[in-house]
Amino acid sequence: MSYATIELHTDGPLATIRLNRPERMNAVIEEMYLEIQDALRRISADPDIRCLVLTGSVMRRDGVEKQAFCAGADLKKHSAGERTAEDRRRYIELAHETALALFDFPKPSIAAVNGPARGAGAELAIACDFILMAEEATLAFPEIGLGTFVGGGATHILPRLVGLARAKELIYTGRVIGGKEASELGLALFCCPVGELRERAGALARELSGKAPIPMALAKRLLHISPRKKVRKALRMETEAILECMESEDWLEGLRAFSEKRSPRFKGE
Fold it and tell me: What percent of the chain has pLDDT over 70?
């Protein structure tokens, strides 16, 4: 089956989902979330596939290549003002269904972050079992600086990865971190030059694929039992928080400032 916004490749026991909207730095839209969910169902049902790698693509413009993992939500669509309140809720719920599908995926999953991961992109990455980052790649949760709120279960998953104080700093400030710092914080398993990322991710995926699949699935299920309940609760609460932000004038100001490439002027309204 072919997809419009992602590519699905299989190589023996390994499956790779490659986000494929490079002209928009792989910014997520509804169709991408639906296609990721469909690909995850297909991979999950295939007993011959033992491990998943989620990665980005390369944007080529005027002879220049730029790595892209996922730039987050496609703010151009948000700023167009075409969505009703119900459309917004459905979009957020779809994003959260996708994050939960990754978190619940019964086989080992690796996010190979080759380029910028922002907002929803970073949230897809932390829903995987492991993050591998290119040294040149960056990751951030910029939502509060845009007048909106984090999603994807970040309020629960991120503190478990980096500790509460560091999670607060990353979410409150939206600070951008590179691959080296992400690995030092324990957010990424390791970092490497971008030219080595595919090979290093494949090596880890092959190692995991060589393990017994039944105990591997049981290990993941048991490790996720308690966190899963809290992630579900976090997703519900994040949905309401995002929707509350979307009703504010500050959210509109954040969108305007982003599109106009200036600093937003928030009023708390």
Answer: 97
Q: Which contiguous run of DSSP H or E holds residue 107?
A: none
| Residue 138 three-state SS | strand
Residue 162's identity, in one-letter code, is V
**How many whole angstroms separate alpha carbon 105 and alpha carbon 207?**
18
The pLDDT tens digits for 27-59 are: 999 999 999 999 999 999 999 999 999 999 998
Instruction: Say if strands 14-19 and 6-11 run parallel, antiparallel, or are unpaired.
Output: antiparallel
- The residues assigned a catalytic role are 123, 143
In sign, the C-alpha dihedral spanning 10, 193, 122, 29 is negative
Both tokens of 199, joined, read 């090979």
Cβ atoms within 10 Å, residue 64? 7
How many angstroms separate the CA atoms of 131 and 183, rounded? 9
> 22-32: per-residue pLDDT in tens?
989 999 999 99
Q: At what angle do helices 249-260 and 213-246 cross, to 10 degrees?
A: 100
The tokens for 44 are 């999950």
Chain centre to alpha carbon of residue 80: 23
What is the residue extent of each domain of the chain? 6-195+212-260
CATH 3.90.226.10 fits 6-195+212-260, yes or no: yes
pLDDT, tens digit, for every residue of 149-171? 999 999 999 999 999 999 999 99
What are 157's two structure tokens?
Answer: 């998953």
